Amino acid sequence: MNTFFSIHELKNYAYIIIGSIFLALAVVGFFAPSELITGGTAGLALLIHYITSLTIGTIIVLINFPLILLGIKFLGKMFAVRTIITILLISIFIDFLTQVVHLKPFIVDNALGAIFGGIFVGIGLAFIIKGESTAGGSTILAKIISSKTEMKPGQVILIIDFMIIFSSLFILEDTGKVLWSIISIYITAKVIDVMLTGNLNKKVVYLVTQKTDLFKELIRNELGPQGTIIRGDGLFDNEDKKMILIVVKVDKLQKLRELVKKNDPDGFLIITEATEMLGRGH
């Protein structure tokens, strides 16, 4: 079957369509009515829309067209095709909702518009990312710049979003709208993280102890059977070190602390976030 119409690609297009609808609803229903902005191409398009008579969808296409031509060799054939489709869908849906449906604002309020607009954008972008695509704009520039420099794509996107927000200070008279727009971008980032990595309730714990045999038994009985013993060398010659690596639910952390305090006062815990888990049902 042609790659364009394979089951995998059709699934990607379904994600892209859903994501594009959420983005369009965010722009038309929350951001535009309250004159708020968001990050990336949509944010820049909103700024230009506020000072011109061009439709938001038209501006998105105009901004992204040269960027796609510039970055197409960095995207790969199918990725470029999906990006172009995504940009066109977002533009069409936005203009359709405003020019044809005349969708009424969901809310005209800075705070609620920023919060729920940020949520909708986050959901939309998460679906688009699941569809192995991008909404264009800053993502394309980030790929190009990061491939030519030591900057990470996330850093480039953050800089671009900051420039858009800074520019809004000269266009939006209400500084409060700018501050709420910043909060909206933060909400968007958190929603994307939750949708792509899950809302994990677990921590990664490193237990440094000389009593690994004892704690192997205690952990199996009290916390569960999964864990790994890491062996290594200390800073001194012939100094063997052992460390137990386990993933612990947040509600069981206190139990683990009590076990260590009771059975090995010289042992200590290093606790970090589990940002993503794959395998074993995750």
UniProtKB/TrEMBL annotation:
InterPro entries: DUF2179, N-reg_PII/ATP_PRibTrfase_C, UPF0750_membrane, YitT. Signal peptide: none annotated. Residues 228-279 form the DUF2179 domain. It comes from the Bacteria. The chain crosses the membrane at residues 12-32, 44-72, 79-98, 110-129, 156-172, 178-196. It is a multi-pass membrane protein. GO terms for cellular component: plasma membrane. It is found in: Cell membrane. Its main location: membrane. Keywords: Cell membrane, Membrane, Transmembrane, Transmembrane helix. Pfam families: DUF2179, YitT_membrane. This is DUF2179 domain-containing protein. It comes from Arcobacter nitrofigilis (strain ATCC 33309 / DSM 7299 / CCUG 15893 / LMG 7604 / NCTC 12251 / CI). The lineage of its organism: Bacteria, Pseudomonadati, Campylobacterota, Epsilonproteobacteria, Campylobacterales.
